[in-house]
Amino acid sequence: MAATQRIIDFLATRRPEGPCLVLDLDIVADNFRAFRRALPDSAIFYAVKANPAPEILRLLATMGSNFDCASVAEIEMALDAGATPARISFGNTIKKERDVARAHALGVSLFAVDCEEEVEKVARAAPGARVFCRVLTDGEGAEWPLSRKFGCVPAMAIDVLAHAHDLGLTATGVSFHVGSQQINTEAWDSALSDAAFVFNTLAERGIVLTLVNMGGGFPTRYLKDVPSAEAYGRSIFAALKRHFGNRIPETIIEPGRGMVGDAGVIKAEVVLVSKKSAEDDKRWVFLDIGKFGGLAETMDEAIRYPIVTKRDGDRMEPCVLAGPTCDSADVLYEKKPYPLPISLTVGDEVLIEGTGAYTTTYSAVAFNGFEPLRSYVI
């Protein structure tokens, strides 16, 4: 989504120095309502890691959102924003036992696991808690696929949840994640088939699961159009009916990027325009923000952000786009050069759109002396 008038007015009047993210809360509220309409029977657990700005968390808490947290710090942020412990999931499958104990002491009782060792930690540190097991998916169709770092195969999930049951935990269900920026609305189908297999197998053993955490993956618009929340809702509900029939379990969705991505715009500045030789047919355009300043998702050129300049009516030519740090990895787009106006020059401001998610949280702490990405929420 293009910069809103509120963001444009803020930049024009405040003139903040250096690169910064400006995020419009009205867009976040609109996105929350769209998810609620699309999947009215699913509880929304906002993925705090996407953007943990207190203003965002307070807004979503007021609107009735729950929160998917990856650490004790994020749990404390959600509580400070007004969420009750019952509205919080400790969704990271890799947790220190003392962090499980701290979350339990704060009242959190829903934990992700993906192996028997993690179950044993939760059983010791949070006796009686509810656990769901994350199942591996292939992530095909995602622009930012997730690795095999999280989850286990469905057959192992059955053993993990049975072990949880035996240790006195409540084996509550299954989770999966179809990959971030998932543009295939049908991607949830095979994962829900796996979830139904786990449900049915455990039911035969007398363990009744009640929850499917369908994860995130809902996209935001960058350079290409993406399906609407309603399109995902229709496809996901059809898959639930297909695999669970009339006994559809309790469901959770965990939007992060889809909730805040299109609500934010980064204002940046051109620091240098150069070539590497007299014969070079590619300009190098250096900005005052790069991979280490918040644009880490340009790694492997996976996420291509829309970039707007005041010279966009001029002739465009492809260039290599890079950040300002003394690290050769700090190149944003080179394999597939980025078209920018040939007249772009030192001191020009650019707006990098769709940057509300995974920018401030990926911003390095003073690498090369550049301060972390400043954020303004309006």
Description:
The protein is an alpha/beta fold and 378 residues long. The protein folds into 2 domains: 165 residues, Alpha-Beta Barrel (TIM Barrel); 116 residues, Lyase, Ornithine Decarboxylase, Chain A, domain 1 (Beta Barrel), CATH 2.40.37. The strands form 3 sheets. Strands 1, 12, 13, 14, 15, 16, 17 and 18 form an 8-stranded mixed β-sheet that branches. Helix 2 packs parallel to helix 3, helix 2 runs parallel beside helix 9 and helix 5 crosses helix 6. The longest helix is centred in the middle third of the chain and has 17 residues. It is elongated and about 75 Å long. The protein starts with a helix and ends with a strand. The model has no long low-confidence stretch (mean pLDDT 95).
Task: Give the H and E element order.
Answer: HEHEHEHEHEHEEHEEHEHEHEEEEEEE
Architecture per CATH nomenclature, i.e. the level-2 architecture of the largest domain: Alpha-Beta Barrel
Query: Tell me, what is the CATH class of the largest domain?
Result: Alpha Beta
Strand content: 15-25%
Total helical segments: 10
Assign the CATH topology of the largest domain: TIM Barrel
Q: Please outline the major beta sheet.
A: 8 strands, mixed
Question: Span from first to last CA?
Answer: 16 Å
User: In angstroms, what is the radius of gyration?
Assistant: 22 Å
Instruction: Estimate the helix proportion, in percent.
Output: 25-40%
Unreliable spans are none
- Kindly name the structural category: alpha/beta
The average pLDDT value, as a whole number, equals 95
Give the number of domains.
Answer: 2
Enzyme class: lyase
Organism: Antarcticirhabdus aurantiaca
EC number: 4.1.1.116
Protein name: Ornithine/lysine decarboxylase
